[in-house]
Specification:
Blueprint lengths: L1 E4 L17 H10 L3 E3 L5 H11 L5 E3 L4 E5 L11 E2 L3 E5 L4 H15 L2 E4 L5 H8 L3 H7 L6 E6 L2 H13 L3 E4 L4 E4 L4 H16 L4 E5 L5 H6 L2 E6 L14 E7 H13 L1
Parallel strand pairs: 1-2, 1-11, 11-12, 12-13
Antiparallel strand pairs: 3-4, 4-6, 5-6, 7-8, 8-10, 9-10
Helix pairs in contact: 1-9, 3-6, 4-5
The protein binds (2R)-3-hydroxy-2-(alpha-D-mannopyranosyloxy)propanoic acid (2M8) and magnesium ion (MG).
Length: about 260
Amino acid sequence: YIVFTDLDGTLVDHDTYSYEAALPAINLLKEKGIPLVFCTSKTRAEIEVYVDELNTGHPFISENGGAIFIPHAYFDVDYVSSRSTEKYDIIELGTDYNLLRNVLLNIAASEDLSITGFGDMTNEGVSQDTGLDLESACLAKQREYDEAFKMDGDEKDAETLINKIQANGLNYTRGGRYWHIIGENDKGKAVNILTQIYRKQYGNVRTIGLGDSQNDYPMLKVVDIAFLVQKHNGKHDPKITDTKITKVEGIGPVGWNMAISELLK
Ligand code: 2M8
Ligand code: MG
């Protein structure tokens, strides 16, 4: 098995950002040597905090499939990467953040939409809006492939926004709190690429995916076993109706813990 998981609202609680309720199942994965791969809207800088705390040491996927970060020498087999840093080989699938920001600002101005992105907000602003502490808010602003934003508006504004994003050759998705403007990437494409590398290395591994929101749907569609946990309101995302996706009773990390413990028992 390989486990691909969303963070916000799935492995970590929507409000407290704690994974405490999922620790029994996280430890079970460690015991069994099953890779835990984070696949989230969060930035590289944010994810590294979780990687360090949970000592996963595995590859991870940032910013809604914007990039795959593979620690050097993690795989023996070859794969094509876009660039390398001291720590990682990076497979980039996303579009440059500055380009995304420019398009978003232009759309807001030309359509008179009230849009506020992380790039418009201070660390304090992001912290107040998300409930992240100041340090984490600062890491969330270090964006490379995805702009998270909110919009004050009605259904018609949403429709205008979507049309304009697509007319610019870009895409959007939605997380627990925010809209996201992205390029050609999504979580499913990134999971597919990383799964292929795992299969090249280990043969036919089975993939598990866990998520809570619309931005997880592409990932949940491509894994062998998919779980949808309840959102903080105690409901499953109403937009996700695929019957191959198992709806878990339990909000965020509580549902996560149940799903993984049950599956591996
Ligand atoms: C943003 O992501 C969440 C994911 O569901 C959202 O869209 O509501 C991201 O930009 C991420 O970087 C940040 O940590 C998170 C905080 O809630 O918000
Ligand atoms: Mg989520």
